[in-house]
Specification:
The chain has 417 residues and is of the alpha/beta class. The protein contains 13 helices and 16 strands. Helix 1 packs antiparallel against helix 3 and helix 1 crosses helix 5. The radius of gyration is 23 Å and the shape is globular. Bound molecules: nicotinamide-adenine-dinucleotide. The site of nicotinamide-adenine-dinucleotide has 28 residues, from helix 6 and helix 7.
Length: 417
């Protein structure tokens, strides 16, 4: 369809999401257990993404050159056709809407598979799309692995975009390989925050705890779950982190005063409690949390206190495995090279955070750390800034112009007259 018309559809959809902000936010809050404010923020992000990619549509351009007189070579970028999107549970609406935006803007249709844990807002998104978009452009499925696998293997699906765990990403990449279907993978993380000795301990602790995304109970791929702190600041940073963690209100997620709601499912809840109990036996020091909160009204939900372990090493499971829960591991370092080995010595490479006012150290560390997205004395994400993993955290950059182009295929036309 004409580009102006396509962009118009996406902008209408973006506005419609904002009109339904309260409902969509509340759906994600009750379905996933994440704090209401954050889930309303996800509606804003989804709307912004649709507008961002709508604005970039006319930048999907080819290249031209002439090899000799009477000759023109040019490239076109064409959509794949049907794109399958497979989503996790932690940002239900956001991943449904935001992760469809680039594929739609590039002229594809999408089939989204919502997480089996939190499908409600995706179904509501489908209803909203029905009011605005032509029939069949956005399709939403619910279901688990069997459903996702059937999508990946379907002969009409030419492009697959996955957000999920490393183990799921590997299975999907293998299935996609059978038909050589183009797949992009946004997978898990076990992300270091590196605190240098010149840092302000209060600020550093604040970055560490804020970076955990506790309003999603730490169920966030970009969470700063490995705190690599220099030995000179270890004591002070830990003391501040403990205070901050203990001040975080745990409770019913739709009450605005609360920061942490329940864990998404019983399976995930038990997995986190198992990590906590095995870490106690593996020799790390429990600094705070690690328990189910005492309040009576929280006894029947999957609530866990914000938890900090100190003296974690790479021999302890939580030193290197993604927990996807409100659990932070503090690891002390002394020598720069051994800190870099700690930061890079895991299979993941999603994000890293660096806290120092020493520009040279910050830049050198940003260069050496094996991660796709690095913060220096900063937090948050912005549309236009490429987000994606290195190593087993996946491949393919999102939230940026490259994502838009990744939903097109290049055709070269070699013409003589
Ligand atoms: P998951 O891997 O269990 O499931 C993700 C999706 O894959 C679900 O929709 C699931 O039904 C589907 N699925 C599972 N097996 C499949 C198969 N064989 N074929 C096709 N589809 C299949 O992940 P989760 O528990 O829902 O989410 C948590 C994970 O997602 C964490 O590892 C987290 O780090 C990651 N994540 C990554 C990003 C990122 O941007 N890098 C963002 C959010 C979450």
């Amino acid at each position: 369809m004409p580009l102006k018309e396509l962009a118009g559809f996406l902008i209408k959809l973006a506005d419609k999401l904002l009109e339904n902000r309260d409902e969509l936010g509340m759906m994600d809050c009750v379905d996933s257990g994440n704090a209401l404010n954050g889930m309303k923020g996800d509606v804003d992000w989804s709307s912004d993404s649709l507008k961002y990619f709508a604005g970039l549509i006319s930048e999907i351009k080819g290249e031209t050159f002439s090899e000799k007189p009477g000759h023109l070579n040019f490239t076109r970028r064409q959509p794949y056709g049907v794109v399958a999107k497979i989503n996790p549970f932690n940002h239900p609406l956001r991943f449904c809407a935001e992760k469809s935006a680039a594929a739609l803007a590039a002229g594809n249709t999408v089939i989204v598979k919502a997480s089996e844990q939190a499908p409600l807002s995706s179904l509501r998104f489908a209803e909203i799309c029905e009011e605005i978009l032509p029939e069949g452009v956005v399709n939403v499925l619910t279901g688990g692995a069997i459903c996702g696998d059937a999508m990946v293997r379907h002969e009409d699906v030419r492009r697959v975009g996955v957000v999920g765990s490393v183990s799921t990403g590997k299975i999907i990449a293998k299935a996609a390989a059978e038909d050589l279907t183009h797949v992009s993978l946004e997978l898990g993380g076990k992300n270091p925050i590196i605190i240098f000795p010149d840092a302000d301990p209060k600020k550093a602790a604040n970055f560490a705890v804020k970076g955990m995304n506790m309003n999603r109970q730490g169920q966030s791929c970009s969470s700063t779950s490995r705190v690599l702190v220099h030995k000179d600041l270890h004591h002070e940073v830990l003391k501040e982190m403990k205070k901050l963690a203990e001040d975080l209100p745990v409770g019913l997620p739709w009450l605005e005063k609360n920061e942490l709601g329940p864990i998404v499912s019983e399976i995930q809840y038990k997995k986190i409690l198992n990590y906590i109990s095995s870490t106690k036996n593996e020799g790390a020091d429990l600094i705070t949390g690690g328990e189910i909160p005492k309040e009576q009204e929280l006894q029947n939900g999957f609530f866990i206190q914000p938890t900090i372990f100190d003296k974690v090493t790479m021999d302890i499971k939580i030193g290197k495995e993604e927990i996807f829960g409100p659990v932070m591991s503090v690891i002390e370092w002394d020598d720069y090279e051994s800190m870099i080995s700690l930061a890079n010595g895991i299979e993941y490479g999603l994000t890293a955070m660096i806290v120092t006012d020493n520009l040279k150290l910050a830049m050198e560390t940003a260069e050496r750390v094996e991660a796709g997205y690095v913060w220096i004395n900063s937090t948050g994400r912005y549309l236009g800034a490429p987000y994606g993993g290195w190593k087993q955290s996946g491949f393919g950059q999102e939230e940026c112009f490259d994502e838009l182009l990744s939903y097109t295929q290049i055709k070269n036309v070699n013409m003589r007259w």
